[in-house]
Amino acid sequence: MSSSPARRSRRGAGTRSAPVDKKTRPMSPKAPLPALRPGHPDYRPADWRTLFQLNRQFGVPDPWYGLCPAWRIHLESAARREFGHRLQVVEGPYALEYRVPLDVVGPTNLIDASVVFYAKPSYDTYDLPAQDYPRIWAQRGLPSKHRMPVDDALCLYYPDDPPQHRWTADKGLLDLLDLIVDHLGYEAHWRATGGDGDGIWLGDEAEHGFAGEAA
Predict the structure, then answer these.
(1) How far is CA 84 from CA 2, 88, 99, 143, 210, in A?
(2) Are 201 and 208 a contacting pair, CB within 8 Å?
């Protein structure tokens, strides 16, 4: 898979780090995702009625951005050209999930990834728009230096960074999938080189937490 311009521009030499003020909130979700939402390991499409009842308590506006055809077309178009029928979509009243097998270590050993957009996320988006901070899962349960501690979602970028250094919905789903492939590759190398001991993280990274004011 070739790198997109946004993906290439986001990369930089060396490792970024950010000082952490321990008095500020950590970069972690506020609470576990409710059961039976897209992305949950026990989720099945037949549970949309339950999902609807769960989301009513969050006061989600209707319609939401996931129902906007123009937004969907812009988000999906490049990814659909790249993945075709392998890109699967699960739609619901207040959530939109994309499932796709990704080539991280070779075409005969694809890794299933799940990207879920919520109308009103139950996790902290650090004041970013919900469409710019979806939840992403892949290879649940494996050790990693950069995952959310509550629900094992991938921690792909620092929310306090400027838009050119993090993913935003206007870059499209394909760019996010490229970022996921990179991240999973970094995880594999980190585990292979010692993990929590002396593991090497090949990509850019920032320490968890916020320096000064939160995003």
Answers:
(1) 16, 9, 12, 31, 39
(2) no
pLDDT band at 26 (very low <50, low <70, confident <90, very high): very low
Q: What is the pLDDT of residues 83-118, one digit of tens each?
A: 999 999 998 778 999 999 999 988 889 999 999 999
- CA–CA separation, 64 and 44 (whole Å): 22
The helix or strand, by DSSP H or E, that contains position 118, with its residue range, turns out to be strand 111-118
CA pseudo-torsion sign 144, 145, 146, 149:
positive
Report the distance separating Cα 135 and Cα 189, nearest Å.
23
Question: How far is Cα 26 from Cα 199, in angstroms, rounded to an integer?
Answer: 23
Q: Quote the CA–CA distance of 119 and 129 in Å, as a whole number.
A: 10
Please answer whether residues 192 and 104 qualify as being in contact, where contact means their C-beta atoms are separated by less than 8 angstroms: no
Q: Which two tokens stand for residue 77?
A: 């178009």
Q: What is the pTM of this model?
A: 0.73
Three-state SS at 105 = coil
Query: What 3-state class would DSSP assign to 91?
Result: strand
> What is the bridge-based pairing of β-strands 95-102 and 88-91?
antiparallel
Q: Which two tokens stand for residue 122?
A: 């139950």
CA 158 to chain CA centroid, Å, is 12
Distance between the two ends of the chain, CA-based, in angstroms? 32
